[in-house]
Write a structure and sequence with these properties.
The structure is a homodimer. The first copy, chain A, is mainly alpha-helical. Chain A is built from 9 helices and no strands. Chain A folds into 2 domains: 54 residues, Homeodomain-like (Arc Repressor Mutant, subunit A), CATH 1.10.10; 144 residues, Tetracycline Repressor, domain 2 (Orthogonal Bundle), CATH 1.10.357. In chain A, helix 5 runs antiparallel to helix 9 and helix 8 packs antiparallel against helix 9. The first copy, chain A, binds a DNA duplex through helix 3.
Chain lengths: 204, 204
DNA sequence: CCATTGTTTGAATTTCGACTCAAAGAATTG
DNA sequence: CAATTCTTTGAGTCGAAATTCAAACAATGG
């Protein structure tokens, strides 16, 4: 028995491919995604890509999963690293949620991948999960603020959190789509103004 | 001179092709768009499609233009046909701005086409123009309400209008992407709640 | 150091859809 | 109706990218 043969580090290779695919999608878009690009970016042959991902859709789904994970973690980190003051933390959340420019690659990638959601249940699930987690972050921030008396919420934390995430998504969509009327700085100001309004916290 | 030959109704044919292309995009997505599908939907041969649109991108741009135009007109109509009461009119705008279901084809089409904006200036321009016109509609509604004393605006009509459009876009994106946590009815309620908050108009 | 199995390659093949084009069909003018 | 030009067709060509595959290349166990 036990002819192990050669149990290589498949996970490492897979990880490299996912990262390479993300890069390729960022550069040429989902539509223009070619196996060759992924292979080149990862420094392997086309055959290797297919060896690990006979179904290319699985790879794209993995890219999506990775992007969602990375994004949520970065926001969680922004929240945790901000000073404990609820207003500061809420502001940190807002700052971490908008694309800094039309070239912001993580946001660009996420919007690209979200488009698949209408057609693919797997992607829809990831988008749903991202939304839920972002709502969770905002909810917590709002509730802590309310509990400490810094915020006076205009509605349930849940509802307000939904609104903030949707607002961010709307502005973000316009930013990455190069709508000249929506500049990142302006979007940030408007989201903050909205946050100020619904929390009754002037120091935001 | 003057051998007119056969000046057919090119515009009618073009219009038919644009409509057929819109249908094809709705069904298979921008990525999967094939000349054959357009031809089939229009009931002509592939050659004819190329005869009128040697550059397929031009056709897609035309689809986008048509979708934007149709959407803006439908909202304008919704606004005009509502009773003159500012609150009723604002509500009509909100109602006409959200997809009624994940299958809403006009909204679906628009989100699909907006994705090209990041990569194509022509599409970016259309998206920008749509945004500006929607903002215009909301601005007017808000200003009329403020002038008649029905609304008490929490900020400039411009800024509030931006916020309402972005909010709609954000929720709309989740709806067409089949995010189960964002139901059309709920989204509508939340947008209205936001409108109520920023206008101080309880009867909204 | 040989046997076994996992991995990688790249050339050959297949697939699919865009694009070409010559010929046929239709409207208009005179 | 003859001449002219616009329109339509669809079979054939072309090219790009996916997919296959047999052979070469490790790593590990014994």
């Amino acid at each position: 028995m036990s002819k192990v043969g050669r149990p290589r580090n498949q996970t490492a290779r897979r990880q490299a491919l996912v990262s390479a695919a993300g890069q390729a999608i960022t550069e040429r878009g989902l539509e223009g995604l070619r196996i060759k690009d992924i292979a080149d970016a990862a420094g392997v042959s086309q055959g290797s890509v297919l060896y690990y991902y006979p179904e290319l859709d699985d790879l794209v789904l993995e890219v999506h999963r990775g992007a969602v994970e990375g994004f949520v973690e970065s926001r969680q980190r922004a929240y945790d690293e901000a000073a404990a003051d609820p207003a500061v933390r809420l502001r940190a959340l807002v700052d971490s949620g908008l694309p800094a420019s039309p070239e912001d690659s993580l946001h660009g990638l996420l919007y690209q991948l979200h488009r698949r959601a209408g057609r693919s249940p797997g992607h829809a699930e990831l988008m749903t999960s991202l939304f839920a987690r972002e709502v969770g972050l905002y909810s917590t921030a709002l509730e802590v603020g309310a509990a400490t008396g810094v915020f006076t919420l205009a509605a349930s934390a849940q509802d307000l959190a939904h609104g903030l995430v949707a607002l961010e998504d709307g502005y973000g969509l316009h930013i990455v789509s190069r709508n000249a009327a929506v500049r990142p700085e302006r979007a940030r100001e408007l989201v903050l103004a909205h946050a100020r309004a619904v929390t009754g916290c002037a120091s935001l």
